[in-house]
Design brief:
Elements lengths: L1 E6 L2 E4 L4 E9 L9 E6 L6 E6 L5 E3 L7 E6 L4 E6 L8 E7 L16 E2 L3 E6 L1
């Protein structure tokens, strides 16, 4: 059984910061072996990749968030974080955390490479 639960969304003014958390667990799996990703979906748009972190701590970012967002993980807490700074109105979306099913996989920007998803958390950035 796999559980992926996001938290930390909210309403913030442009230029502000938020930190999203994602607690993940899977029976028979060790979190430290798992590759995790953050995606977002704005109204009327496709779900898009934001950031990913592999089991070996290699990291990928979507170009528009580089230098503003930071993904990290705490294996002792089975949690991955997304620190979002200098937020812009165009960052407004539902943010989803996702886990790749197979262990020891590279980080990926492809939505189809992730097998387990959380319910999402709303981030709204006002201008």
């Amino acid at each position: 059984q796999v559980q992926v639960v996001e938290s930390g969304g909210g309403l913030v003014q442009a230029g502000g910061s938020l930190r999203l958390s994602c607690a993940a667990s899977a029976s028979g799996r060790t979190f430290s072996e798992s590759t995790m990703g953050w995606f977002r979906q704005a109204p009327g748009k496709e779900r898009e990749f934001v950031a990913g972190i592999s089991w070996s701590f290699s990291i990928l970012y979507e170009d528009s968030v580089k230098g503003r967002f930071t993904i990290s993980r705490d294996n002792a807490k089975s949690t991955v974080y997304l620190q979002m700074n200098s937020l812009k109105p165009e960052d407004t979306a539902v943010y989803y955390c996702a886990m790749r099913m197979r262990p020891f996989m590279a980080a990926s920007t492809e939505r189809g490479d992730y097998n387990y998803w959380g319910q999402g958390t709303q981030v709204t950035v006002s201008s």
